[in-house]
Design a protein that fits this description.
61% of the residues lie in helices and 10% in strands. The chain has 105 residues and is mainly alpha-helical.
């Protein structure tokens, strides 16, 4: 079994009762429910955007080292996107052409 650490913290009775009810509804213990909630929060906090050609995709990484490595790798693309000057009329032209394609024009 993996080594564990105990965390103690105080919560308001209403919050505890709501969490306990949510755990019961999901068929688990308050302890397991809280551990799952902590893991979920941690994964969402460590989610790192991955830039592709036309979109930003959120990719969750398991460790801080992986996240830092990905940020370092994407740094030039991020800087290029920030420093790149675009003409808003280009975006309008793209939207117009897409709309015309949708209507068969």
């Amino acid at each position: 079994m993996a080594k564990r650490t105990v965390i103690y913290f105080e919560v308001e009775p209403e919050l505890r009762n709501r969490c306990k009810a949510a755990a019961a509804l999901s068929g688990t213990t308050l302890k397991q429910w809280a551990m799952d909630a902590l893991k979920e929060k941690l994964e969402s906090e460590l989610a790192v955007p991955k830039i592709t050609d036309n979109a930003i995709v959120i990719e969750s990484k398991g460790s801080l080292e992986d996240t830092l490595e990905l940020v370092e790798k994407l740094s030039p693309s991020i800087k290029e996107g920030i420093l790149k000057v675009t003409d808003p009329t280009d975006d309008l032209e793209i939207l117009r052409s897409e709309r015309m394609d949708d209507f068969g024009g």
